[in-house]
Each structure stands twice: as structure tokens, then as C-alpha cells.
Amino acid sequence: MADIVLAMTGASGAVYTVRLLQVLLAARRTVHLTLSPAAAQVLHAELGLNVNLDDFELSQLIPIDETELQDSKLNMMRSQTNASVLSESDAPLGSVEYHHFQDFSAGIASGSFRTAGMVICPCSMGTLGSIANGLSTNLIHRAADVHLKERRKLIVVPRETPLGSIQLENMKRLADAGAVVLPAMPGFYHNPLTIHDLVDFVVGRICDQLGIGVDLFKRWGQD
Ligand SMILES: Cc1cc2nc3c(=O)[nH]c(=O)nc-3n(C[C@H](O)[C@H](O)[C@H](O)COP(=O)(O)O)c2cc1C
């Protein structure tokens, strides 16, 4: 199974990133992870997580220490997640390779490095605009550019409302270039009861695009 690139940028919705990472690891995938400085700000503002981009450890994003989990918003998430997906019996789990957002020597900056695709979740309007205009000023933009030019799967998960014409045009440019634009826009037809039912709807739709077979939500037409 080829590796997956997961980038988080500074849009609201940090919980989507953490949940997606958990699900990819439970699916035994190798994840190349990179975060922008604004993503670290959002992780702190929304989940109370302190992520050090210069000295990253996975436990900063997915706390494993029970004391860190107490009173954490992630604790709520954990208690509501689908046990079958996160079961400890799923071991051996996948692995994470972290890349600093300024490290242009990372493998994922090159088209010769093989991946199964890239997800930017959530994707800020700033990153969306940079990719739509081919700027490649950080590793996230560059890796996205590479996925487009190599005709590999690029899934962007924008989060903003309302949307202006520049943002809509940038989304169209990316869709025309082959990207999947998958807004963090959960449906309600699966009768969600919790925030995490909504989170899992979006994460499940991302996994569908990656061809990862997990059932995180009740599909339309499913009994
Ligand atoms: C708590 C917080 C929430 C934000 N939410 C959004 C958002 O939902 N969408 C967006 O496009 N930008 C949002 N921003 C602004 C971006 O983080 C900002 O434009 C930044 O330059 C994006 O940089 P990046 O694309 O390199 O991550 C938010 C910023 C903060 C601190």
C-alpha cells in the first residue's frame, strides 16, 4: 500500500485532521504529515493542543497519556469514536513520517516519490489560493503541485463561509486541474446525533476518495 500525504493548514476544523490521522493509522497506512504554522494555531485554539513544528512528536497531536486526555476536547472525541475503527486489536498500526513545512528536501516535494495521494484537511483559503496559482512557497503547496502535475489524487478540504468570488475561482481552478474539492460540509441524511457523527461523515467521504474501506457513517440507501 502506497503512502498517503496529509497536510493540515490554518482553517477551522482541527478535529477533522486528528480523526483522519487516527483512521489512516488504524487502516495501517504510512502517513507523511506536514502542518503549517497557522495549523498549529488552530490546533491550540480549537483542541488545546500544543504542537511544536520544530520538534514534532505524534503525541502532541494524538495524546496517548491519560492525564493529558482528561478535560481535553479530544477526550470527548475519543469517547464517541467508532471502536471498531480504532480498536487496539488492529495492531500493527500504520506509521507517521513528519516533515517540516519548510523542508523542500522531503521526499514528498518530488514527483519521483510515490504516494497514493494527498489530502489537505482542512485547507485554508490562503493555501487554496497558493496552490491554484502554482506558488509552491512551502512544502504543502509544493507537494500539492507535485500531485497535480503527476496526475495523482489531490483532495482539498476547504473551510470558509461565506465564499467570495476569488475563493470560488480558486476552487474551480483546482477542480479543473484535477483536484477533488471536498468541502468540510457534512450531510445530515445519516441522522447524526453527535459532533463526531458529523466529523466522521466528512472523514469517511475523504477515505472514500482515497479508496480506503472504512464505514464511518451510515450511507444513503444502507439499511
Ligand atoms: C483559529 C483560526 C481559525 C481560522 N479559520 C480559518 C478558516 O476557517 N478558513 C480560512 O481560510 N482561514 C482561517 N484562518 C486564517 C488562516 O489561518 C490564515 O489565512 C493563514 O494565513 C493560513 O495559512 P496557511 O494556509 O499556511 O495555513 C483561521 C485562523 C485562526 C487562527
How would you explain this protein's 3D organization?
The structure is a single chain. The protein is of the alpha/beta class and 223 residues long. Helix content is 41%, strand content 13%. The protein is built from ten helices and six strands; from the N terminus they run E-H-E-H-H-H-H-H-E-E-H-H-E-H-E-H. It has helices at 14-26, 37-47, 58-61, 66-69, 73-80, 83-86, 125-132, 139-149, 165-176, 195-210; strands at 4-8, 30-35, 95-98, 117-123, 154-158, 180-181. The chain has a six-stranded parallel β-sheet, with helices on both faces. Helix 1 packs across helix 10 and helix 7 packs across helix 9 (165-176). The longest helix is centred in the last third of the chain and has 16 residues, at 195-210. It is globular and about 45 Å long. The model is unreliable at 81-91 (pLDDT under 50).
Q: Could you list some keywords that capture this structure?
A:
223 residues; binds flavin mononucleotide; 13% strand
Stretches where pLDDT is under 50 for at least 5 consecutive residues are 81-91
N- to C-terminal distance: 31 Å
Shape: globular
- List cofactors, ions and other ligands: flavin mononucleotide
Strand order of the largest sheet: 3-2-1-4-5-6
Which class best fits the helix and strand makeup? alpha/beta
Q: Strand percentage, roughly?
A: 5-15%
What characterizes the major β-sheet?
6 strands, parallel
In helices, the fraction of residues equals 40-55%
Count the E strands.
Answer: 6
Order of helices and strands: EHEHHHHHEEHHEHEH
Number of helices: 10
